[in-house]
């Protein structure tokens, strides 16, 4: 198999695989100074994220849709001795941006620590191959480096997902790494000093704040970039449309014409329920308990496309999305059901051009 065939067989290629051609074209066109170990200049990294056209005509697709300045601050931070912390409400592309940033800066996005309440210090520092440790005692060969240690050795980017979910004593292990740029290995009487180019991109969810508040000592090691919700309906619609198209292609769903109208409807429903007020500002609404972010809108539409492709007539219809919308909105079967039914009757039903959607929702609304 060629590399392209191998990549195309993957369910979800990494950013550096999916966009290898763009990254190569950018590197070739990029004559600006690159920080030590960087694969691209900061300018080229921002172009990779936001899209553009290179002098030779190569089109770079936008990955992130939002304020350019935020991406410039994020990229500039990675060239300093401060680490980058992306925060925001769920579904604001924190993980997505972290992956693409790492791919563009370091050429890979895979030195990843997934933060959970069970994340142990070994995941941040290093662990041991116990068979070797018992047989030979502590040695370089018995040491199992964490992704962060590997990034330090290679002058590269490590990613830390959901930083605030990690217990605070484990978070503290990061302080030495980020301030001294060294990771002591007392068992071997050695240390790993970070090579130039090392940095960390962490993400944290707004809603988790307080679960394990970042200590101020750790917070000071990060520059924080807050990723906002899409500015308006049009922006959110264009984000959803683009991602749905990419996902549909990656999943090799039979082509279903991108149904602009259904996308706009789902985005409108989610925005209204999220903000607790209708688009025209006239009707106050209760918000459901779960998150109704851009990410949920993307998966509702993708679901609908699979239904339409395999069980429908190949056109995305309200009936294909009603069930998924219900599933996304009603997380708590009692309270959310009330919220959703009120919305259906007070808002959806009143919109003449939404009659077919109203009917489809009533049908699945148990
Ligand atoms: N502004 C945006 N530009 C491009 N894509 C976006 C944007 N906002 C959301 N998305 C899309 O939404 C999806 C979800 O994003 P992601 O998983 O990165 O969210 P997150 O902020 O990490 O959420 P969580 O807090 O739940 O971890 C991705 O497919 C991403 O492409
Ligand atoms: Mg995330």
UniProtKB/TrEMBL annotation:
Instruction: Report the residue ranges that make up the ATPase dynein-related AAA domain in this protein.
Output: 84-222
Gene Ontology molecular function: any one: ATP hydrolysis activity
What's the superkingdom here? Bacteria
Q: This protein is called what? A: ATPase
Record the organism. Nocardia yunnanensis
Give the source lineage, highest ranks first: Bacteria, Bacillati, Actinomycetota, Actinomycetes, Mycobacteriales
């Amino acid at each position: 198999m060629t590399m392209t065939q191998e990549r195309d067989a993957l369910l979800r290629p990494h950013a550096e695989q999916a966009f290898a051609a763009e990254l190569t074209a950018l590197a070739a066109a990029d004559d600006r100074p690159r920080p030590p170990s960087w694969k691209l200049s900061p300018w080229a990294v921002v172009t990779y994220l936001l899209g553009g056209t290179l002098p030779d005509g190569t089109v770079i697709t936008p990955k992130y849709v939002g304020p350019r300045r935020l991406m410039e601050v994020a990229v500039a931070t990675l060239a300093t001795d401060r680490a980058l912390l992306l925060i925001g409400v769920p579904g604001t592309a924190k993980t997505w941006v972290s992956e693409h940033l790492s791919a563009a800066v370091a050429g890979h996005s895979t030195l990843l620590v997934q933060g959970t309440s069970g994340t142990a210090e070994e995941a941040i520092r290093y662990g041991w191959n116990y068979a070797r440790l018992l047989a030979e005692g502590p040695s370089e060969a018995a040491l199992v480096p964490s992704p962060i240690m590997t990034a330090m050795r290679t002058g590269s980017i490590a990613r830390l997902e959901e930083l605030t979910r990690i217990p605070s004593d484990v978070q503290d292990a990061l302080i030495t790494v980020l301030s001294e740029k060294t990771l002591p290995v007392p068992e071997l009487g050695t240390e790993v000093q970070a090579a130039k180019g090392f940095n960390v991109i962490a993400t944290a969810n707004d809603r988790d704040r307080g679960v394990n508040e970042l200590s101020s000592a750790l917070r000071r090691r990060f520059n924080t970039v807050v990723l906002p919700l899409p500015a308006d309906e049009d922006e959110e619609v264009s984000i959803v449309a683009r991602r749905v198209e990419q996902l549909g292609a990656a999943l090799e769903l039979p082509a279903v014409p991108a149904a602009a109208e259904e996308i706009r409807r789902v985005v409108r429903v989610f925005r209204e329920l999220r903000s607790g007020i209708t688009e025209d500002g006239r009707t106050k609404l209760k918000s459901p308990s779960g998150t109704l972010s851009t990410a949920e809108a993307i998966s509702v539409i993708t679901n609908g496309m699979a239904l339409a492709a395999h069980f429908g007539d190949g056109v995305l219809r309200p009936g294909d999305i009603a069930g998924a919308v219900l599933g996304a909105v009603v997380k708590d079967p009692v309270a959310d059901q009330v919220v959703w039914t009120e919305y259906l009757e007070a808002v959806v039903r009143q919109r003449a051009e939404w009659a077919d959607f109203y009917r489809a929702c009533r049908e699945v609304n148990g």
